[in-house]
Write a structure and sequence with these properties.
Layout: H1 2-21, H2 29-34, H3 41-52, H4 55-69, H5 74-102, H6 108-115, H7 119-152, H8 156-204, H9 208-216, H10 238-250, H11 256-263, H12 268-293, H13 305-308, H14 313-318, H15 323-357, H16 367-394, H17 400-424, H18 430-449, H19 461-482, H20 488-496
Length: 512
């Protein structure tokens, strides 16, 4: 216990020191929210990865989908790496950096407002961000509480307050640069931690081959009659597995806290390196989490899904590890949760300040007032999310993956298609963006309220979220074809920013 507590104290001390150290980079809005658009490849890639993967992934999704699909759940992690990381960087990274700098936008709603010269569109996007980031933020605490309870036997409320206060300190003090540096440290812990845990779990089951063999003889007539389904290539339910891959992979293309990482990229070299680093990070962390969860049914004697939910799968797998590894796991999941929490509250507070309060509620809001407002809202958002998490726990609602599914589906369903088309297509109309906003957020809200009225396949928040994203890719071009075209001069000026000429070294690009 002394060793585990010492690890925690050192971890928290480093996080706070970095936050205080980075105060000099957070003296204006650009520095506080985007790190001055000068963040290198390693920090950006790790910030992207650690914002992507939280306790929801490690405890909620890995446990739930590992139990449902067995070893085939590893496909989710590989999809996260290829679609959610590598292709996101290739397709969005460079163009996002160029066009957001052209419009001098620091948030996704601000980009939409400038891209379509529409204040209502900016405010509408801000409201969607505010509403749907809060439940996702609240979901981050729950998985962590189970591991803290297992390792330290402390009250869940204390765990929530501790995490919220410490995250708030370093985010408020150092802004984006502090979160980026802390994300790098936290990401390194996640890389080594997940590898160590996988090795320990496989060893406790006789090694990889023996564990696969044991998994192959597991049967669950309620799920499938296929022999060896949980050790098979595509698992017992490939269609629903595909829905999870789409939601958790393609969804990052439309999440404000993820896309915002591209705003801060330093240069071309950072994009190339960042793509490789981010993909590798996702393969190890996300692939490793889902691979680990795939062996959850080997511990079925210690797990009661009906009583404790899927969130109990991963803690049961780790309960008998050595104190050193349990301490490492707690730091690992704490790192994942704090990094994602910092990213979410930064996105929420900056969006509400820059896109709603500034110039709309408070006229002539200077840099100092904006910074103060952002910092105050960070405190408010962290407090709200912590209160929701405590209420959720007291009400015996333990299924954390559902909150994340609804939030991801609403945000990505609303923003993915409009943002992607805005970067590549000149003819996207303002009306098509509004239709996509209303459809994405409305479809997921109704899924949460009247789920039983949906077709069986879409009653799952996972499948419903995947559907809204894919539907948006069709809705935007169809509506754009029948509605008023955008301002031609505004669009031409925006796309002209892609064609500015810059001299580069021969090592970067050969001459004709």
């Amino acid at each position: 216990m002394i060793f585990k507590v010492t690890m925690l104290i050192v971890f928290f001390a480093v996080m706070i020191f970095i936050g205080l150290y980075c105060r000099k980079n957070a003296t204006d809005v650009n520095g506080f929210v985007l790190g001055g658009r000068s963040v290198g490849p390693w920090l950006t890639a790790f910030a992207y990865g650690t914002s992507y993967f939280s306790a929801v992934i490690f405890v909620g999704y890995a446990g739930q989908f590992g139990w449902k699909y067995g070893i085939a759940s590893t496909w989710i992690g590989l999809g996260n790496a290829i679609i959610g990381s590598m292709l996101a960087w290739v397709v969005l990274g460079r163009r996002t950096r160029i066009m957001t700098q052209h419009f001098n936008s620091a948030t996704m709603p601000e980009f939409f407002g400038a891209r379509f010269s529409s204040l209502p569109l900016k405010i509408g996007a801000s409201i969607i961000v505010f509403i749907f980031l809060i439940p996702y933020t609240a979901s981050l605490y729950n998985g962590l509480s189970r591991l803290f309870g297992m390792a330290f036997n402390i009250d869940y409320t204390i765990c929530i307050v501790l995490m919220a206060v410490l995250t708030g300190i370093y985010v408020i003090a150092g802004g984006y640069m502090a979160t980026a540096i802390n994300d790098f440290i936290q990401g390194t812990i996640m890389l080594f931690g997940i590898c160590a845990v996988i090795g320990a779990v496989l060893k406790s089951n006789g090694g990889f081959i023996a564990a696969i063999h044991s998994l192959a003889v597991v049967e669950d007539a309620a799920v499938t009659s296929q022999p060896g389904a949980f050790a098979s290539f595509f698992g017992p339910d490939p269609l629903n597995l595909l829905g999870v891959v789409i939601l958790t992979s393609l969804g990052t293309w439309g999440l404000p806290q993820m896309v915002q990482k591209f705003y801060a990229i330093k240069n071309e070299n950072a994009i190339h390196k960042g793509t490789v680093i981010s993909t590798f990070f996702a393969v190890v962390v996300s692939g490793g989490c889902y691979f680990l969860g795939g062996f959850g049914r080997l511990y079925s004697a210690d797990i009661n899904i009906e009583a404790n939910g899927y969130d109990s799968v991963i803690p049961a797998m780790l309960e008998n590890l050595s104190p050193l590894l349990i301490g490492l796991v707690v730091i690992l999941v704490l790192s994942a949760s704090m990094s994602t929490l910092s990213s979410l509250v930064m996105a929420s507070s900056s969006t509400l300040t820059i896109d709603v309060i500034k110039d709309n509620i408070v006229k002539k809001m200077d840099e100092k007032k904006q910074l103060l407002c952002i910092r105050i809202l960070i405190v408010i958002f962290i407090a709200i999310s912590a209160v929701i998490a405590i209420i959720q726990y007291k009400s015996a609602i333990t299924f954390i993956a559902q909150l994340m599914g609804v939030s991801w589906g609403a945000l990505a369903g609303s923003f993915l298609a409009p943002f992607l088309y805005s970067l590549y297509w000149k003819k996207i109309s303002k009306a098509s963006v509004w239709v996509c906003f209303i459809f994405g957020s409305g479809f997921m809200t109704l899924n949460m309220l009247v789920r039983g009225s949906y077709p069986a396949l879409l009653q799952s928040p996972i499948n419903a979220g995947a559907f809204t994203m894919l539907a948006g890719l069709v809705i935007v071009p169809v509506v754009s074809a029948f509605t008023k075209k955008p301002d031609e001069k505004l669009v031409e000026e925006a796309f002209a920013s892609y064609n500015e000429m810059h001299e580069v070294k021969r090592s970067t690009a050969l001459e004709n």
